[in-house]
Structures are given as structure tokens and as C-alpha cells.
Amino acid sequence: MTDNVKIRETDSRYLEFFAPERHLKLEQLDYFSVRFKSVTIDCTARVYAYQDGKKLAMVFSEMAMEWRGWDGKKEWQSLEQEFDIACEITKLGVVTINFSLTPSLDREWDVSSSISFGSGELEVISKRISSFFMHE
Predict the structure, then answer these.
(1) Residue 126 belongs to what H/E stretch?
(2) How far apart are CA 27 and CA 112, in angstroms?
(3) Model's pTM, two decimal places?
């Protein structure tokens, strides 16, 4: 099981999944936290996973299988809309994850940004995301 996953654009700019909270009896993921860090921003939100965590892992799995390119966007949104992603790939193999992040209770702030990386990193990222969300 993986307790955190960092998707890095650079050492100082990344998206991190961490602090998985699992249901004691069902062993399913109830909540997780997402952090976006850059030179000018450092924000974190707790995300309600419900049954959607596995769907997010599937998005990354699909991207890894289609690492040479796909049409359109690969998208996912949390049930309570604290976190969403829309992933695209260029013909040169640059993957961009556009995302928005907001705290679920007070919605005091909202951050929308993106991170980019080479498609060659998708397989490792996908395996780590799968381990994080699917408790493998």
C-alpha cells in the first residue's frame, strides 16, 4: 500500500495525494487529501472519496495504457466537488493535468492550475495511484 503519491513537474511544483482514510470494516477509501505546491502556492484539501477513488485510479491506468496519446480529455471529479482533473496529452507526449482544488466545508478558497510531465512517467504514476486508491 502506498501512503502518498507525488506527481512532480519540478522539485518545487507538484500535486500530492496523501493521508488516506479507510473505512475500518470495509477497507475502502473514505477520504484522502490533495496538496498542490508551487513557488507561490501551497494548498491542501481533504477530499471525500466515496466510491470514486477507484474511478480516479482507472483514469490514470487508462492514461498509462494509452501513453502514446489519446483523443480528448480524461476527466474525474469528486462527489462533493473538492477536486477535479482533466488530463490531456500532446503529440510530443507531454501530459498536462488541469485541476481545481477547494476545501469541502467552507469553500473559502479555490485553486485552479495544471502540472505537466512526460508520458514516460505514466506507468509508474499509475501503479502508485492504484496502490494508493485500491489498497493493493
Answers:
(1) helix 122-134
(2) 31
(3) 0.92
Which 8-state DSSP code applies to residue 3? S
Q: What is the mean pLDDT of each run of 10 residues along the chain (136 residues)?
A: 89 95 77 96 93 88 97 95 97 98 87 97 96 76
CA 94 to the chain's CA centroid: 17
Q: Which of 97, 98, 108 is nearest to 45 (CA)?
A: 108
Domain boundary assignment for the chain: 4-134
Three-state SS for 47-81 is EECCCCHHHHHHHHHHHHHCCCCCCCCEEEECCCC
Are residues 84 and 78 in contact, defined by beta-carbon separation less than 8 angstroms?
A: yes
**CA 54 to CA 37: how far, in whole Å?**
24
Would you identify the CATH topology of the domain 4-134? Transcriptional Co-activator pc4; Chain A (2.30.31)
Residue 38: helix, strand or coil by DSSP? coil
- pLDDT of res. 26: 66
DSSP letter, residue 40: S
